[in-house]
Amino acid sequence: MIGSCPICNNTQAKVHAAYRHSHASFAGLNRAHCDACGMVFASPMPAEAALKDYNTSYFSSAHDGLANNASTVAFFSGLSRLRIAHIERYLEIHHIDVSSVFELGPGSGVFARNWLEKHPKTKYAASETDHSCHPYLHQLGVNVVDNSVEFKPPATDLIVMSHVLEHVTNPIKFLSDATQCLRKGGALFIEVPCRDYEHKSQDEPHLLFFDKEPMQGLLGQLGFNNISLSYHGVRLNRLRSPFFLHAKWMALRSKLIRFGIVRPFARRYPGMEILNDPSERAMIAPFQAHTESDTPAWWLRALATK
Question: What CATH code would you report for 64-305?
């Protein structure tokens, strides 16, 4: 039996495929599609207890631990700088001052580190279910919330959740609870993969597969204003049809960068103006994270005000 759509509550969603997974927590799921709002989601959702256990050691369960090689660090650092620039443009347009940030799912704190480098006076709090990340966050001066007790942070100017919302079973309740501390007039930033089931071999660990229409519906239901949605990165039509030679070239390119041969790949393309580190530019370029697309692409970003 297919559950109702987690965004619009439509009960006529249809199964499109079996949910592809490797971890036992996701056994027996399907991938369903809602014709009313376009949402694609796992159905039935996994048991909350199993999901909580999975997320407590998320990076070990889903990614074989925290990646700390230089190339991966450069990629995520460059990506976080681009996200910050995107947020800052929105804040400037809507005249929003930020002195406090609350981030959900910060991982080891790459975004937090780059934000605090630019805005060192910010009061920065975060909630992270994977305890292996907590020492990294503490080193940055981030106030890490204890998820085992009820926490009510003070009024916050900006809430950040990057690659979090696609992992939850009830996005309406989750987002409603998560943004209770957002002050009136404050900003919310969300980034999620866009329909990544179309180009990945596994659906795990994602439960929700967003595009603009369901994201607009979700934020609208919760009363958010000034909603801005945008696609970023390589377009889906290219991701769905990778070229064999391109894959070979990417593997060679990555190997050369790991050996320290960076400069040939570190051209400063339009959109990379804020990336001063050649390694960050070299790692970002093939994913086109510095570009905004008019058609569905790798990442979907949402910004809104309360």
Answer: 3.40.50.150
